[in-house]
């Protein structure tokens, strides 16, 4: 994967397509917005640093969401240097793709955020993170969607896959029943748990631990160095089918399902959602971006996406 | 431990102290109430079927709570055949000890519930469960306390130790900070997690999983049959000091700490607490008691304690 690094790097710095992006960012016509979107999307969908099964899974998840919800989604209008960016020394590269939903009257989608991050490690290896998260708006109280794969060595992978609840489950057992018991989500977690190389992954942030559902898949896969390709095999045979199933459940029952949300409840939901987004921004993005990309790039990227996370 | 079984059994059936209990239950004077309490407490505090380190730990936890909160606690007034009971065939025995707090104006304690259950298993071994839970009332929103040790074989122990939150942590990050981050509760979980024989324990009930805090210790200790006494060693050296520390944190910061709770918040807290108790009664007690003690005994015991769990 390290071979791809300079290629991507030089492409971005000097290719005509990159210059076009910068120009189109200054235009406001629908066609140049689409051009900006399409260029960013192409780069994003490459997932250039991860293994084939990992890339295929991410591409499938994103295409599935786009096919199902496409008509409800606006193009990605992030500046080109936020859709794709790198640190000053060129050792860290990333792509970011955010699509808002149409106005709440036409869509239950708040926004979708997809990203990949590649960073060379001082130890010689590389850190690769790919993620897709989907936030719903207050037309519905149904859970959000989250998948994140973090690979810090050829033998180690962290998987976070969940439908994070948007209500206090202790106070809303019916909600727990509808989205978590009724959907049999826990059976997917149990399948993964049985694989010998799978261990629980416990986030160091208590807020993140509080955010996820009781059926959240948060696991660390540790394979033997003597079994090269085993992580990829596990992604292909185990992670892939389960992630697709969980996304399908989310699309059918959450993103496209209808829920009754009263006015008071809607106001409360907006407050709670807002808090979740603020804390996620702070805890997850706000702390890792400066470390990976330096303060300047982090400021630019975080500045451009802050609007999505603040109400 | 199986040796103790018939001794306890015959003691209960024919001893004069057991008959006295039945008489005193019909008296309502303060002194006979205390007699009923004291007899039940003596039996309860025996923890007759568990190992010495396990028994000592439970006795210490209960004495510590009683010493600290004693003046706020009413005596246990459960009928004698609920303070100590068994199934029809004499293969399952149990003791239950519940003490309410004085009126809310004088105490933040709703009630404390201690219990032990011993049940012979068809496979030849025995199941031993000991627990202590403490529920606070709406004078405070501080977390409750819960410890449960479940031993189903000489080489296997499940430990549940937590301060279950009384607020939605996602919506109340300050509360999360005060009681969970600030108290360094997670460091205790981390210590246990490092022991090679310790594995995470995941409750089959999603409601129970939702109830506990992100620092909850929910572990299964599985030792080798070739190392007899290893479970007891781990209780003595690891579980014991951590359980005592967590109880001290709860006593200092929750049971005896002062919190501002407004009227509206208090009403909501009462509703949420009520729901927790109803669901705990249903999921935990309501499902296991009939299985262990038969429907008749379960009805009697659950009938006597239902009042504590319903608002």
TrEMBL record, chains A, B:
<dbReference type="Pfam" id="PF06405">
    <property type="entry name" value="RCC_reductase"/>
</dbReference>
<dbReference type="GO" id="GO:0009507">
    <property type="term" value="C:chloroplast"/>
</dbReference>
<protein>
    <recommendedName>
        <fullName>Red chlorophyll catabolite reductase</fullName>
    </recommendedName>
</protein>
<dbReference type="GO" id="GO:0015996">
    <property type="term" value="P:chlorophyll catabolic process"/>
</dbReference>
<dbReference type="GO" id="GO:0051743">
    <property type="term" value="F:red chlorophyll catabolite reductase activity"/>
</dbReference>
<dbReference type="InterPro" id="IPR009439">
    <property type="entry name" value="RCC_reductase"/>
</dbReference>
């Amino acid at each position: 994967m390290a071979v791809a690094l300079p290629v991507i790097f030089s492409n971005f710095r000097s290719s005509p397509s990159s210059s076009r992006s910068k120009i189109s960012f200054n235009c406001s016509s629908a066609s140049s917005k689409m051009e900006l979107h399409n260029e960013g999307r192409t780069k994003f969908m490459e997932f250039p640093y991860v293994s084939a099964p990992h890339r295929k899974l991410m591409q499938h998840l994103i295409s599935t969401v786009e096919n199902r919800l496409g008509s409800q989604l606006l193009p990605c209008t992030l500046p080109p240097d936020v859709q794709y960016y790198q640190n000053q020394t060129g050792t860290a590269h990333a792509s970011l793709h955010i699509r808002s939903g149409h106005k709440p009257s036409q869509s239950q989608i708040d926004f979708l955020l997809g990203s990949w991050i590649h960073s060379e490690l001082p130890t010689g290896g590389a850190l690769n993170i790919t993620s897709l998260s989907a936030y719903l708006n207050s037309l519905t109280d149904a859970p959000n969607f989250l998948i994140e794969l973090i690979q810090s060595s050829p033998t180690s992978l962290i998987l976070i896959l969940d439908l994070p609840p948007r209500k206090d489950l202790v106070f809303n057992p019916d909600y727990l029943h509808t989205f978590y018991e009724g959907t049999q989500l826990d059976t997917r977690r149990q399948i993964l748990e049985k694989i010998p190389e799978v261990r629980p992954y416990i986030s160091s942030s208590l807020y993140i631990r509080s955010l996820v559902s009781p059926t959240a898949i948060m696991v660390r896969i540790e394979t033997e160095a003597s079994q090269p390709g085993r992580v990829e095999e596990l992604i292909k045979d185990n992670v892939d089918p389960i992630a697709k199933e969980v996304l399908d459940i989310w699309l059918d029952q959450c993103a496209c399902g209808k829920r009754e949300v009263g006015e008071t409840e809607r106001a409360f939901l907006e407050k709670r959602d807002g808090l979740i987004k603020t804390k996620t921004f702070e805890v997850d993005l706000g702390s890792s971006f400066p470390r990976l990309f330096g303060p300047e790039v982090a400021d630019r990227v975080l500045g451009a996406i802050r609007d999505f996370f603040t109400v």
